[in-house]
Amino acid sequence: MKYSRLTKEQFEELHQEFINFLATQQVTADEWANLKVNKPELAETELDVFSDLIWEGVLNQAEYLEHFSAQHIYLFRLGKKKMKAIVINVKNKEVDITTQEGYDWLRANLMDERVEFLQADKPYSEDKNLDKFKMIEQGASITKGQLFRYFDELIN
Question: Kind and range of the H or E element at 68?
């Protein structure tokens, strides 16, 4: 398995897609029920393969990632050959930008000397989607990129 297995809730959301996936494997509903009981390891493999397919589709479509911590915002635009990163560092330990109050402070003090903006390009490894997945596992979220575009325009 390349990524991680989908959660029970995610499988429930993707119930119809999973049925279609099993159909492409020529597995009927009765055969699936039989597999789960008599060959659970094979059923587990099917769940893993489906999970990887879903992750591949999601990661191929992802264009932006964001990750917030108490003093940092990491914004990424996921290009074809590399990702562009914008990092906002808050050098005021009294501010936690993961809270509404801290985020409001940041918005009101963008030009304060305690707010630092950094930019970098980061090349992908040989597996671009695995790079994206690892960032998501570390807490990044897929977004539409509004914050990235806002800060990109602000600092460039």
Answer: strand 64-68
Domain ranges of the chain: 8-61, 64-155
Orientation angle between helical segments 128-137 and 40-61, nearest 10 degrees: 100
Please give the Cα distance from 19 to 140 (Å, whole number): 30
Which of 156, 155, 144 lies closest to 77, judged by CA? 144
Closest alpha carbon to 133 in 69, 73, 58, 50: 58
Contact present, 74 and 66 (Cβ < 8 Å): yes
C-alpha to C-alpha distance for 22 and 50, rounded to whole angstroms: 9
Residue 156: which pLDDT band, with cuts at 50, 70 and 90? confident
pLDDT band at 138; cut points 50, 70, 90: very high
H or E element at residue 85: strand 82-90
Give, in order, the Cα–Cα distances in Å from 31 to each of 27, 28, 37, 43, 140.
6, 5, 10, 10, 38
Query: What are the two backbone dihedrals, phi and then psi, of residue 28, each rounded to the nearest 5 degrees?
Result: -85, 170
Going by the DSSP 8-state scheme, the letter that residue 80 receives in this structure is S
Helix (H, G, I), strand (E, B) or coil at 38: helix
Dist CA 77 CA 102 (whole Å): 24
The answer to whether 96 and 69 have CB atoms below 8 angstroms apart is: no
